[in-house]
Amino acid sequence: RAGKLSSDGEEEAAAQGAEEAARAARRGREALRAAAKEAEYGRQLREAHFAETSYYFEGGLRKVRPYYYDYSTYCKGRWVGKKLVDVFHSEFRGRPIEYYLAAAKAGRLLLNKHPLKDLSVVLKNNDFLENTIHRHEPPVTAQTIEFIEDNDEVVVVDKPSSVPVHPCGGFRHNTIIFILGKEHNLKELHTVHRLDRLTSGVLIFAKSAEVSKRIDEQVRQRQLEKEYVCRVVGEFPENEVICEEPILSMSYKMGLCRVDPKGKPCKTIFQRLSYNGKTSVVKCFPYTGRTHQIRVHLQFLGHPIINDPIYNNEIWGPEKGKGGSVNKTDDELLQSFAEEYVSKESLGILDIVEEDLKAVLVDKKQETPDNGIKPLQVATAIDHSDNIEESEDKAKTLSLNSAPQANVHKTETGEMCLTEFHNEMDPLCEECKMARSVTTDPHFGRKNTMRYFSQVCPFQQKNESHEDLV
């Protein structure tokens, strides 16, 4: 009996070890893909990309006119041998299956450059899928991007809070890379480093690969240093504080991290500048560049940034993650954050799109939250029947006949491709049907007001002292 119990325990430990190894491998792959994307943005953009849409300004916000955008992907290994309709069921839960049926009838789905009408087609290796969607981007601040330096080698700007550095999640044109390209004709820039979307400050771009490599080497040799200033909860210690807790990324897609012994080594030095009786202004010196390093270390120290929507959140537990005290597993944390920001229609806080939540919100019913806001249909329950006639009937309710049809034409190489649509309103688009408030908050979702704006953008006012910071 003892031998049997020991064997069971070993099997369970082996299973847990295998699961953890799989998670680590997945995190590694996601990190490599994320790093590759960041490195490529700017260099790969062409005139056609910048011309996809235009900006307009309203209520102190920079907004992007809705536009049509082509998502494309090669058939993944796990899709081979499956019906496309089943892949939509399991992998793309951001929209109900009726949407894809209507999109196919409108000519917006292509398989290997040919219009796709039958979603029951079985996918093969190297199949190439394209889907044209009507894309809406969250707004960002209309604050002007100020130039610090612009010469033959580098561009240095003061990035406003709320604006991402490069395309991510629901943001594409409302990013520094696109704004510089569209409004200042600064294109093919090399991203030297990045700042979190909610962080303002100095941002450096190189104008050539050689300059980019030279700056990278200077950073590695610590010839360049970074300094940050933030306002945190409570009375931060007067003496210098050094935090060297390792940081682990729970999900690169959702951008969530925590202190964990299995994480990557990091070091941050903190110095208090002032204390007003409730909050402290702290200068931060990161010696490594982990994702959310300063925010995670401040959370661990028990002094999170006052308006941090992620690391100053009760989802972490009563202590809000102080000292690494978290009463949930990684999966439970990811689930909780996804549910909270889906219910608030604030996916921009996590810098992700609805489709990226498929691994988190799986077959979980979503009820209308107490605030009365209807949640996005990220994990809509769909009948997984092989017979899709009923879904096809439902697709008719999407006003297919009035939807703009794709104009498919042949290129010089004989391939079929989609031409550009020219409609800002799309009857297949759920976002076009949503009533929108004029005073939209770019940080806390599309349905909330601007009451948090001054907190998230603390450097809006000129000549403010540390005590004036929010």
Automatic annotation (TrEMBL):
Domain of life: Eukaryota
Listed Gene3D superfamilies: Pseudouridine synthase
Domain Pseudouridine synthase RsuA/RluA-like: 154-299
EC number: 5.4.99.-
Keywords on record: Isomerase, mRNA processing, Phosphoprotein
Region of interest: Disordered: 1-22
Catalytic-site annotation from UniProt: 196
Biological processes per GO annotation: enzyme-directed rRNA pseudouridine synthesis; mRNA processing; mRNA pseudouridine synthesis
Record field: catalytic activity: a uridine in mRNA = a pseudouridine in mRNA; a uridine in RNA = a pseudouridine in RNA
Keyword rRNA processing: no
Record-level Gene Ontology MF annotations: pseudouridine synthase activity; RNA binding
Annotated InterPro entries: PsdUridine_synth_cat_dom_sf (IPR020103), PsdUridine_synth_RluA-like_CS (IPR006224), PsdUridine_synth_RluC/D (IPR006225), PsdUridine_synth_RsuA/RluA (IPR006145), RluA_PseudoU_synthase (IPR050188)
Keyword rRNA-binding: no
Role of this protein: Pseudouridine synthase that catalyzes pseudouridylation of mRNAs.
Family designation: Belongs to the pseudouridine synthase RluA family.
PANTHER family: MITOCHONDRIAL RNA PSEUDOURIDINE SYNTHASE, PSEUDOURIDYLATE SYNTHASE RPUSD2
Protein name: Pseudouridine synthase
Provenance organism: Naja naja (Indian cobra)
Gene of this entry: RPUSD2
